[in-house]
Amino acid sequence: MKPYIYFLLFLCLAGVSSQSQVLSKPHQFTHQDTLRGSIGPGRIGWDVLRYTISVKPDFDSKTITGKNIITYMDNGVKLMQIDLQQPMEIDSIIHHNKSLPFTRDGNAFFTFIRDSSAMYKIKPGPDSVTVYYHGKPREAKMPPWDGGWIWKKDRMGRPWMSVACQGLGASVWYPCKDHQSDEPDNGALLNITVADTLMAVGNGRLVHQTLAGNGSTTYSWQVVNPINNYNIVPYIGKYVHFGEIYNGLKGKLDMDYWVLDYDLDSAKKQFVQAPEMMKAFEYWFGPYPFYEDGYKLVQAPHLGMEHQSAVAYGNRFKNGYLGRDLSGTGWGLKWDFIIIHESGHEWFANNISTADIADMWVHEGFTNYSETLFTDYYYGKQAGNAYNIGSRKGIQNDIPVIGKYGVNSEGSGDMYPKASSMIHMIRQIMNNDKKFRALLKSLNKDFYHKIVTSAEIESYISHFAHRDFSKIFDQYLRTIQIPELEYQLKNKVLSYRYKNCVPGFNMPVKIKNSKTWLNPTEQWQTRKYKHADFAIDDNFYIKTISAIN
Questions:
Q1: For residue 175, cis peptide bond before it (omega within 30 degrees of 0)
Q2: Range list of H helices, 467-547
Q3: CA triple 291-296-299, angle to 5 deg
Q4: Angle at CA of residue 224, ends 221 and 228, nearest 5°
Q5: Residue 247 to residue 250: CA distance in whole angstroms
Q6: Domain covering 343-478, topology
Q7: How much is the pTM?
Q8: Which of 256, 338, 450, 525 has the largest CB neighbor count within 10 A?
């Protein structure tokens, strides 16, 4: 997802929550929440195969016009829900050269592809509808957290445009089946028409550049791999290009960089970290998942986002997070946060994607942990440990990490540092970095370009490690309780038990500065202990409390 900001840093810099997109969390979810977040009658019976999006923005009026050819597998669809958020308007829906009538229900449009009498004739196969649309899309207020279409000017007063819409939804700017569970299996083509004075960049590779002869040019960018709706993005500005070839695990990888012309020199210095990132993450996670589409960093008019094969970069060519170390340890100033974090999402979020945004910890927890792994790879395990431990100060324990299913509801911003801490503890318990690395690589191989649930990932990790981690997942993902290890030292005997935990919580922990492990439960246990002091290894996110005599 987007770059996270810890709570205190958000108060300082932004004054908003630590969520990636500012989504409402009503006590009672609405009909619109259900339409957006669930697989209802209008989403059953068809699977998106490809989007062919054409968009033409008008900078002065802040409006766009366009169309989307939605190619889909027809498995017997009758009613089709097409999402496009207010105040955008659909002009027409064309199916087999026929204009279909449609109705609107808030941010969802409904049309009948066929009537009931034709259902018996259905033979599954590809089909398509063309949706023409226009309007003034929601303008981003504080992208990427409060997103939408971005209308800005660069330092020289020239138009600079893009989109950030994760959580908010891709339907904020183009009509689509706006649910995370249905990616276009065969990728997407994005045709962006702009003034000849500007350059348009999109996901994947530039396949066409068409001069219109009226002072505008259409740039056509194509991805051939499946892609999240929210990852499809136009970047429009006075861009220049440089690039390199990276010799990766699957051969030669095109690494391209698009930046504003006056920032070219700064980018050439800072983006040397991109191949360093690729080396570290291919080591930990396996091959970059989108060799066919290449890898890009694109300077953006906001901080950053993990747009697939076209990562948004807005970190001002500084190390850290806008020059700050979110861990407070100093290690976070050794590298550029946006290059590392957002690129980590290519493996977790873009390769492995969750069906419901309630499970976004799979995206954000593993990607947050990629920061630890990058630090570990270049500066050693102790440095990585210190970075992870320091990052815990961002944990709020406000609401559970996993959100509400079926209503487009993210859980807590703790999906970043708390989920990362949980993964770090699983690594400690496995106590075998070779096997832990194999786990990360196997996840990306076995769930290659797959849509998953949290339950699937949880079960996979336990099965791979040959250890039941279910209580750990329940504790850290589904409650806001920090486990407490209550202990007592008396007459060289250590007594200990867990409190403030889910029933059956049984996470093993290691004694600090020792090779000794404890296996606490909710029941008191005792063992001989000759030392005067007692503490748990700092790599475990628990509280340690001395029992009252």
A1: no
A2: 470-478
A3: 170
A4: 85
A5: 8
A6: Neutral Protease; domain 2 (1.10.390)
A7: 0.95
A8: 338
